Automatic annotation (TrEMBL):
<dbReference type="GO" id="GO:0016491">
    <property type="term" value="F:oxidoreductase activity"/>
</dbReference>
<dbReference type="Pfam" id="PF00106">
    <property type="entry name" value="adh_short"/>
</dbReference>
<protein>
    <submittedName>
        <fullName>Short-subunit dehydrogenase</fullName>
    </submittedName>
</protein>
<dbReference type="InterPro" id="IPR036291">
    <property type="entry name" value="NAD(P)-bd_dom_sf"/>
</dbReference>
<comment type="similarity">
    <text>Belongs to the short-chain dehydrogenases/reductases (SDR) family.</text>
</comment>
<dbReference type="InterPro" id="IPR002347">
    <property type="entry name" value="SDR_fam"/>
</dbReference>
<keyword id="KW-0560">Oxidoreductase</keyword>
Length: 249
């Protein structure tokens, strides 16, 4: 049985967390692990929030592609000190050469929407002691997958590094979570090795606790990061070989 003294020693004890995309597989795990790690309150944000049946979870309506919805969310969650930018889309028909309207839709969520949330809540984090911004990225940002999803995550990876400089003066910790395929509904159509949501979220929260700037949450991502200084003439042939093997039937 967890005692009060045990709870006070939990790594997120007393923190107020907001998770975007909380209805999804990874978002759900971020909410549940935040509670297990001692969070005082968790705002579970989604376009259509679900019921959590937990007094410490507050469902929050939030469409990150709507500036008005983000402003409303800020007014409803003024006590947040840990913001988890998790909401994203990855359409199964995604192609970098696809219709421009579809490319814009993906960027509007994965880049502009997530950046909108980060900028809107930055003053809230500052007012609550600086706090933490955790951006959920993807190792797809580092490889030439021919998708708008990969391009949008590459853009948001760059923005995450920029936000780290931008928010340094207010004492905000900015963490980028880099990971490959995760066993969630978003990746259900891919028959490839996947990390468990529990493992990814656990590593992310450990990074928040230890003051990490970047969390590499699987072996593929860690290996990929180690190769990023390889000459392009060597890196791209290697990467294309890996991608073909990874997505082979």
């Amino acid at each position: 049985m967890t005692t009060l003294s045990d709870k006070l020693e939990l790594p997120l004890s007393g923190r107020t967390v907001l998770v975007t995309g909380a209805n999804g597989g990874l978002g759900h795990e971020f909410v549940t692990q935040a509670l297990k790690r001692g969070a005082r309150k968790v705002y579970a944000a989604a376009r259509t929030p679900k019921s959590w049946n937990d007094a410490n979870v507050q469902p929050l309506p939030l469409d990150i592609t709507s500036a008005e919805a983000v402003i409303r969310a800020v007014s409803m969650a003024p006590d947040v000190d840990l913001l988890i930018n998790n909401a994203a889309i990855a359409p199964s028909s995604d192609s970098i050469s696809g219709p421009e309207d579809e490319l814009r839709r993906i960027f509007e969520t994965n880049f502009f929407g997530s950046l909108r949330v980060a900028n809107a809540f930055a003053p809230i984090l500052a007012a609550n002691g600086g706090g933490t911004l955790l951006n959920i990225l993807s190792s797809a940002a580092w490889i030439s997958m021919p998708t708008a999803y990969a391009a949008s995550k590459a853009a948001f990876w760059s923005a995450t590094n920029a936000l780290r400089f931008e928010l340094e003066g207010q004492g905000t910790q900015v963490v980028g979570l880099m990971v490959g395929m995760i066993d969630t509904p978003m990746a259900a159509g891919y028959d490839v090795p996947k990390s468990s949501p529990a493992s990814v979220v656990s590593q992310a929260y450990e990074g928040v606790t230890t003051g990490a700037l970047e969390v590499l949450a699987d072996d593929l991502t860690r290996d990929l990061k180690s190769r990023l200084n390889t000459k392009a003439e060597e890196f791209y042939p290697w990467m294309h070989t890996q991608l073909r093997a990874f997505f082979a039937d």
